[in-house]
Amino acid sequence: MSRFLTLTSAALMLTACGSDPTLSANPPAEGPAIWTLADADTTVHLFGYTQVLKPDVTWQSEAVSTAFNAADTLILETEPATPETQSDIQQTMRSLGFYQEGRTLGATLSDEQAEEIGTVSAQFGVPLTALDPLKPWLASMQLGVVAISAKGYDLTQTPVATLQRQATERGMTIRSLESPTTLMQKIAGLNEDEQIGMLLHGARTLRDDPEQTARVNSAWLAGDVNSIAETLHGDGGDDSGAWPSDAVYTLMLTERNEFWRDDIATLMETETGTYFIAVGLGHLAGKDSLVSMLDEAGYTVLRQSRQDP
């Protein structure tokens, strides 16, 4: 499930483009994109990060560093990793992601589906039988993680981990927009057909577009939000970035952006200070991006200029 790894921290998901007047007035430049909205006593910087990078990639531009260093509070997409949150994640996976009473993934899939997914998973040294204990949503997540690892991406030294470490060193307040299990609980609530569709879509993306992550990361490092939107959300007018279904797109992207838009509106109205909000890059690209939603809500969201790291 490579797209879930891109747009959220779990596996994928989870960005506005040409139709957004704010972005149209600010053409891409080198360095990851960052936006700012402010009133008399509150400033919010919005930063979209990639979930995985190859080792030793430099990504913190001067604009990103300046915004981060000016902030009093770091707000992450999900709660920072702690022994407690890791325990919650494991418990959620066990209770919602594993079959009970002898049922298996292979028996749930049709023969054609099993063959298609098994062919892809075998390319990464994972026979379909190894995924048998997992429900389709968790099998999709696991397949995406295995594929990313096999391609040499570092799953530990991520941009969000770097931000968290730097915030801790600076003594910044660290908050989050949702718990790490919130999205998993929602995905697990999808009906079985939707979950199988996610698994098939992820496997087909790994098979048909093996360089998707590399392409998205290149666009991210160049500040090319339009290309991110085209690849992840299909905003270029073809089906290459289509999600598994409208239901999955709504669950993983638009509903969460709506919640976060409201959270930011409340923050602007009730709190003071400077905030650095970091979410998966897919949430800040495309027609349903958090940037577009804030713009439509009446906020002036300005894209910052970038310079080479």
From TrEMBL:
Keywords: Signal. It holds the Pfam family TraB_PrgY_gumN. Coiled coil: none annotated. The keyword Cytoplasm does not apply. Residues 1-25 form the signal peptide. The keyword Signal applies. It comes from the Bacteria. PANTHER family: CYTOPLASMIC PROTEIN, CYTOPLASMIC PROTEIN-RELATED. This is TraB/GumN family protein. It comes from Algimonas porphyrae.
